[in-house]
Backbone:
């Protein structure tokens, strides 16, 4: 199905998210018995109605934008069919990749697991009642990033080597070893965020399918079952509060997923009317200068962000969460792309940041299909899956992710390729 659509990843990202927001979410809201509003704020009813109109407006504008972009492009040029499978190879220095992989494994065993920077397969419950949150120490974040890069390079090395062996010898071992390293990458859990499992599952499945096209169905089945199982346990930890009960079994026995709870979760995760209505309340009650937008961009850009740590400005997301919770909060709820545009550009240009997100996702996807190396598939695919699953999120956290990815993953890959060229020269 994906192979018959232009820009399939971005296109289905838009379709799936809008289907959940505009079809599934309203169904749960209509059957929910709870009062309008989230657990911590009740937006004005008038703003709820306005937010519904804004969501409809955003849907129309983004659909028109996507239609015109895809209509002007060739299916063969901008789909998975355009990838030159026989040309895909590792262009970087394999020795450097191997050294990075070895260091990553050492860091995983000596720092990552002992310091609880990562979990493997499931989130450990070390102390009952203590939640496993996200790491905020910059040094630990960089170590964790290095571990992830190293483990994925191990996967790429295994694919590059064993796919060539598989062409000469179709024994299962030449396929299962890369699958094992794919599972290892998917098994790495960061905090409570399930997004890493989604991204790694997509990337590993894509690279394996491109390397073993005849085993496509088997690859998708293996990756889906393995990644899906981990996601289930992570969801039990987060939504059934396994950390409170001390075990996953007890959490399942005491869980109660009502329509009301599901409705509230969908509102939060897919930016329903109440989320946007809260932004309307914020806009009416709090004055936010345009300078904050510039600060948000600078503070979220890797490298520049370190220079702005002591700035007197406050991130828009922090202003939003402080307004919602009634106390100083740096995080909690994420601002939607339409909500962020509303704050700085008003009603007419409310879909602006959504359009920017979709355009950039299309740009990355376009370049992905021109890739001739596994490194490009890794870097661009990683950014693409993050973009396509967060098209309706404020662009600011995406800027943070993209710049950090380019500064870490990009730097490692580019340096290795440069050294590889010099060695050949």
Residues:
């Amino acid at each position: 199905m994906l192979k018959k659509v232009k820009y399939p990843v971005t296109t289905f990202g838009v379709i799936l998210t809008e289907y959940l927001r505009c079809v599934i979410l309203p169904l749960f809201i209509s059957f929910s018995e709870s009062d309008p509003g989230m657990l911590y704020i009740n937006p004005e009813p008038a703003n709820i109605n306005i937010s519904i109109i804004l969501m409809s407006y955003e849907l129309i504008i983004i659909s028109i934008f996507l239609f015109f972009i895809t209509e002007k492009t060739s299916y063969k040029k901008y789909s998975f069919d355009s990838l030159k499978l026989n040309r895909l190879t590792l262009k970087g220095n394999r020795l450097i990749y191997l050294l990075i992989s070895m260091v990553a494994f050492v860091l995983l065993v000596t720092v990552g697991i002992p310091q609880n920077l990562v979990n493997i397969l499931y989130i450990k419950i070390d102390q009952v009642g203590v939640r496993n949150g996200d790491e905020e120490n910059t040094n630990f974040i960089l170590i964790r990033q290095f571990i992830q890069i190293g483990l994925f390079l191990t996967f790429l090395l295994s694919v590059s080597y064993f796919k060539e062996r598989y062409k000469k010898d179709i024994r299962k071992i030449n396929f299962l070893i890369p699958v094992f390293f794919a599972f290892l990458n998917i098994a790495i859990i960061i905090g409570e965020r399930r997004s890493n499992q989604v991204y790694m599952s997509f990337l590993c499945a894509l690279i394996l399918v491109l390397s073993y096209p005849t085993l496509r169905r088997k690859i998708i089945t293996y990756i889906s079952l393995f990644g899906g199982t981990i996601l289930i346990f992570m969801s039990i930890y987060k939504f059934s509060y396994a950390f409170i009960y001390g075990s996953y079994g007890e959490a399942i026995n005491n869980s109660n997923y009502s329509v009301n709870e599901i409705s509230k979760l969908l509102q939060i995760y897919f930016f329903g009317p109440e989320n946007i209505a809260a932004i309307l309340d914020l806009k009416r009650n709090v004055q936010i200068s345009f300078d904050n937008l510039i600060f948000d961009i600078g503070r979220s850009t890797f490298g520049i962000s370190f220079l702005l740590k002591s700035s007197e400005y406050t991130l828009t997301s922090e202003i939003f969460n402080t307004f919602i919770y009634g106390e100083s909060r740096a995080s909690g709820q994420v601002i939607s792309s339409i909500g962020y545009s509303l704050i700085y550009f008003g009603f007419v240009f409310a879909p602006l940041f959504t359009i920017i997100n979709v355009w950039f996702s299309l740009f990355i996807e376009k370049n992905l299909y021109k890739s001739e190396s596994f490194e490009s598939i890794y870097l661009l695919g990683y950014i693409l899956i993050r973009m396509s699953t967060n098209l309706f999120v404020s662009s600011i956290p995406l800027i943070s992710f993209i710049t950090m990815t380019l500064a870490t993953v990009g730097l490692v890959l580019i340096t290795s390729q440069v050294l590889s060229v010099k060695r050949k020269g």
